[in-house]
Amino acid sequence: MHEELTWQIEAPKAFSFEQNLLYLAEGGDECTYDIQGNHVRKAIALGEAYFLIELSEATNGNVIIRVLKGSIFPSEKIKAQLTSFVRDWFDLDTDILPFYEMAKADDYLHSLIDQYYGLRNIGIPNFFEALCWGIIGQQINLRFAYKLKRRFVETYGQAIEWNGAQYWLFPTPEAICNVSVNELMSLQLSQNKSAYLIGVAQAMVRGELSKENIQASPSLQEAEHELTKQKGVGAWTAHYVLMRCFRFPDAFPVADVGLQNAVKQLGEMEKKPSKEELIQLGAPWENWKSYATFYLWRSLYEKM
DNA sequence: TGCCAGGGTCTTT
DNA sequence: AAAGACCATGGC
């Protein structure tokens, strides 16, 4: 592509590009995007086409989108789809001022909203990716989880090359549905997780599981119920996906060890709160449980 | 070294 | 419904 394609998204209220970039940079050894200085690059698939985009901050605070490479020339329609993707990824369409209003009076959240002011609940728009990441991350430490994800992506995903670097597209369900359990185990995924990942891929290829179906669920509970029909997807994984991909405001993975540790720290507790205690102390977060979880997780990154 | 990790399924009470 | 066994392995 010879023409440079650049445009902007107007920044919403209470948005800090820097805070969001910091989150992306400190989250772990990520393989699905790449931070270089003050910008982030990510490969995105739209149907059969793929694009490599770069986001940066304009002097007025807007978000600059630049297409670095594409399998086809981006039409206006595709540019609109890329804009939608970014709006979704960074959750730009949510007015988070009510969250801050609630949080500033909350014992656990009040310090975080100053520290991370303008941070969005950065999502995982790709449904299959969100599910796989949830499954891969079950009950292992995050550093190892990021290693496993990288092996998975670099074995079964597609790389876009640009200026001597590789940018990875997450594997498609089609690329995973016929892989054997043994093959995934060779990446050091456990036997159970290997089977879960293949099962989820097969369900998606067969059309039994789709983003559209979950999106259409009338309630958080029904969406959770639909997801937990999948083997390997329990309450924690379901809520994780409903938070990161579907953005249910009250998705709340209460069994999460990280969440429990964050609350323990901020509340200066002697031991981690139980699931039941977390449900109680999170009750005031109604409509913002997902955001509260995201900010609490964020408070743990300093130690990674 | 032994406990912990962004859990889940299956079995037993 | 709730509790326990088992899985499985790197990180620190």
Description:
- The termini are far apart.
- A five-stranded antiparallel β-sheet has the order 1-5-4-3-2, covered by helices on one side.
- It contains 15 helices and seven strands.
- A hairpin with a 2-residue loop joins strand 2 (34-36) and strand 3.
- Helix 5 (127-136) runs antiparallel to helix 9.
- Helix content is 45%, strand content 14%.
- The chain is globular.
- By secondary structure, the protein is α+β, with helices and mostly antiparallel strands.
- The longest helix has 15 residues, at 142-156.
- The model has no long low-confidence stretch (mean pLDDT 95).
- It has helices spanning 17-26, 76-89, 97-103, 110-115, 127-136, 142-156, 173-176, 181-185, 191-205, 211-215, 220-227, 235-244, 257-266, 275-281, 289-298; strands at 5-9, 34-36, 39-46, 49-57, 63-70, 158-162, 165-169.
- The structure holds a DNA duplex (13 and 12 nucleotides).
Notable features of this structure?
304 residues; alpha+beta; 5-stranded antiparallel sheet; two-stranded antiparallel ribbon; 7 strands; 14% strand; DNA-binding
